[in-house]
Every structure is written in structure tokens, then in C-alpha cells.
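Model: Ready when you are.
Researcher: Fold this.
Model:
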Amino acid sequence: MSSGIAGQPIPLTPAPKVSAWRPYSNPKNIVRLESRPEGRAAFIIDPWTQRWAILGAGSEMVLAMADGTRTREEIVEKVVATAANDHLRSPRTVNALLDELRAAGLLFVSKTQHQSLGLPPVVATEPLGLHLEITNACNLSCAHCYVSSGEKLPDELTDAELRAVVDQLPPFSDKLVAITGGEAAVRRNALDLVEYCSVERGHKVDLYTNAYKFPRKFAERVLEINAIGAGRVNLQVSLEGATAATNDAVRGKGVFDQVLRSLAMFQELGLNRSTQLFICITKNNIHELDAMIEIAERFDLAKLAFSQWEAQGNAADTPWESIAPSLEEWTGAGEKILAYENPRLQLLGNFFGDLNNTKGGRYTLERSLFPKHLFGYNVFPRVSPDGWIFASQLWVDQEWALGNVRDMTLEEAFAGEKFQEHLRLFRRRAEVVEECRSCQWVDLCGGGHPGHTLSEYGQLDHKDAFCDTRKFWFERYVDRHLEGALSRG
């Protein structure tokens, strides 16, 4: 043994221990190989966890070896022995790739750990709120009304019954209660329920309204409720275009001017910053997108949300495909949303998959996690004016009702066999739709939204109407980050 300073023995470096780790990676990882003049790269996405990384070519081979049965040393040995690329015949290179893959969150201790870090496209969860329809009565008859509002139903829930439904949400848990109809404002004591939800139960409230001749005393009452309820009440106002001609073709003559008067009143009272404008986009109004944004800016509204018609209710005989903008129009509108910069106005486009002009949006190009279509079936359940429970707002046909609040609680409805059968139907969709089985994005989508599919095609075994749009944004996200990574070398 050699001697060191002051004759002290120098300990020999112990031999490195062999790692017992058997790396696991998702066998359904999505890999896009890219060769450009700037270089070669592999864009790798774990659709379960939504983690992704851009690494050198060959990393996909290393990842494929990580099946949870081979040790790190066995993976290195196997890759070095079988790689056709000289680059991968170096143990040092393969070890470096393993380190990069682990740092990127694409390698796991076990399959169990991996499963704990993600969600399937269709989930059942604790409700985040409630879509509470307090009346079917409405002072308008819109061409696209998904529930065919108009006349009051003979057996609508009483005030006490409505409060009992709200009481099923944990108090002061900051859930969101959307109070709608019909036109909620035409129901007597509607704002008493708003105050009960906001002040006494501690929930956020969205009061949906067509804002047609909206009473000033109602607006003033909302202000009073917000003054004592920590500003939890917002208004959601509907329009169908930026001109009277476009809007009134859907909502009725004179409605556009009346809505603008209501927006002016909200601004005068200071209620505008608690107001969101909601517009269904079709081929008939998409050319007015800039003008719609200008309206929201003019009245200094907090949000502007774009959505789509559903082929049900009054629109049951109007297939989405007959009024849908072109793919180029859709994606062009989406690019406009993403590029829009105004801290006073949040733009949302849920028909694109929740595109959002803020960096916190679920489908922004800057979000660190790869976009994924997550459908929480009971995340925002709907209760009809006569008490029928639907797990999602987009189901209106009676055959999808889980029961009635007069006979069961929401918790009992979501614990029932009918709800579980719905989940099984939704989760098997991608297995039986031919286009989905052959699509590389299927594990990020699950076949899309079953509600859109059912309303448009009358069946679940079909890809949804927004498939091509969603695939565009998946590809757009990849291209955006590849261009940035390759340009940086």
C-alpha cells in the first residue's frame, strides 16, 4: 500500500458498485425523428405523464431498451453491441443518454411509479363544481340552444331543492357553480341563490345570461353580493357575432343592440371586470373574430371565450360539419389567440382544446407539459331544471341521466353502475375507431370528446369532429420546440 502525507496510508478507491436499477419507460412513447441542416434530433413524448424531451438521434433506441427488466449495465451492453450507429457504440455515450433521459423525466424506477404520475384521457374525479340549470324559461329562442330553452317546465326544482343540491358541495371549498337556464335572470329569486352560493357557501359563481334587457337592479345586486362575498360572482354573456346581422340571425332581431347596452351598463357600474363574453364560432362569423375582440376591448371585459355549436336541442338538425369553419380558418384563429397580448383581456378557445393567450393555459405552446386531451366526465356535472343529473354539461338526452336529485345525491349518482358503464364506453372508443387505432396521437387524445362525437354523429364509435384541429396543435407544439432546439444547436 502506498503512503501519503505524514506517512498515512492512501486508501484504494473501491470498485464502483453495479447499479441494481432496472429503468422503465413507457412502451407507448411517441417519437418523432427530425433531420434538418441544423442537425438531427429525436422529439420524445411520454403521453401518460406528458413529459417530453429533445435529444440526440439514438436516444429512442436506448429508451426502447428500458423495459423494466434490464439493468442499466445490461442496457448499455445491449445498445453498444447492436447499434448500427457508430455514435452509440461508446458506453460513455449510452450512459450519458440514460442520464439525459432520466433528467428529462422519461425513465422511472418502475412501472408502478410511472403509472402514479399520469392520467388516462378519460377520468372520473371529484367534481370541481356544478352546472345548475335553475329554469327552462327563456326570453329568447336561439337557433343553437343545446337544451331547447323557452317555456318553464311544470316540475322545476324549488328554491329549497336548489339549495339542497348546492349543499352537496363542500362549503367554502371554492367550487364553481354555473347558474344558468334557460335564462337564469327570468327566475324569481335567482339572485338569492347566487348570494347563497357565493356568500353563505363560499363558492365561485358564474351567472350565465343572454344579457337581453338585463335589469339594472340585477347588475347592482351582483355588485352588492361581490362586495360582501369576496368578488366571487362573474357574468357570462353570450353573443353570436360582432354585428347585428350576424348575431340576430341566431338570437333574434334587436338582441345585438340590447346586449351592447347591457355591456355598457356593466362598464358604467364597474361590473365589466367580472364579465366574460362567450361566442360560438362558425363559418358565418369567424370573419368577425377581430371585431369580436374589439368589442371585448371596448367594454374592458375580463375574458372572451370562443366555443362551438352542439348538434342537439334547437340545433339538432344542424350538423357541426355544415357550419364549421375550414381547418385553415380554425387554426388561423388559434394562432391569433396565442399571439394576442393584452394583460386586461384573456382569450380562450376551448374548441381548439383550450388554447389560451396566457402562459398558464392548458394548450399554450409555452407550457412545459405536452398538450393532452383530458376529459373529466364528472368534473362539472349538470343538473337540469327538473332535477335530472348528467355527469357532463354536453349530455342532454334523457337516456344519459344518472338519476334525479330528488331521489339520490350526486355522490350516489357517480358511484352507480350506470356512471361506471359510461366510463367503460368512453375508454374503449379509441380501440374500435379505425382512424384512432392507427393514429400516433391516440394516447394523448383517447378518440377525443365523447360528447362532441355523440351529438354530431349519434354514436360514440367515431373520432370526434375536432380531430384534425387537435392533431394540428400537437404537431404545432412539436415544430415550435424543435425549431428552437435546433437553432440553438
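Researcher: Now this one.
Model:
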Amino acid sequence: MRIDIVTKEFPPSVYGGAGVHVAELTRVLASRADVRVHAFGGPREADYHGATVHTYGQPAGFESANGAVQTLATDLSILEPLEGADVIHSHTWYANLAGHLGGLMHDTPHVLSAHSLEPLRPWKA
């Protein structure tokens, strides 16, 4: 079974509970399945406890766009590599559009884990 995990936070760039959740879930699943992590941001180690890690920086041409549009552009760059997964599992609003569209595009079940939805977090004020 191939499980593709889509996330913004992944080691070493973990700053909250979602990142801890994804790192631990990946570690456990990688001992039981072919796990491929698709993480936002700069280069990381290509192997994480047996999982293959792919990284996605901000696509060219979106440098002056607002943060939400930059996130959506990154989501779109993740879609094609999701082909062939048996299950797509996405985390946080940053990555959930990639998971949803990837599931539709490749006729693959999509599992969504919602994190950080509280509206009163300081950076959401």
C-alpha cells in the first residue's frame, strides 16, 4: 500500500502540534507501508524513518502574491506527484486543497486531518 502524506510542517520545520502529529504518523506508517511525504518548504532529508520525502518551494511567479495565493500555488504543484497513491492524507488548510484535488484528479481516497482551526490564535487575529 502506498500512502501519500501532504503537509506544510515536517521535520526539521515543526512549530506546532500538526507537525508533531505528521512526523509521528509518518514514522509509524513507514514501517508498514510505502509512505511518501509531500512537504512545503525547502530541501529536507530524502528519507525519514523509511518514508520518502519530497519538498515543494513556492512556485516561480508568485513572489508578490499574498500568502493564501502562494499556498494555493504550492498545492497545485503537488498534484501530479500524488498519482499512484492508494490513499492521500493531508494536514492543515495549507495542504488540504492539494489532498482534495489530488484525490479527485487521481480517483484516490483522501483522508483529511484538520489542525489549527481555532480562530483566536495570535497569528489569525
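Researcher: Key takeaway?
Model: The CA atoms of residues 35 and 51 lie 5 Å apart.
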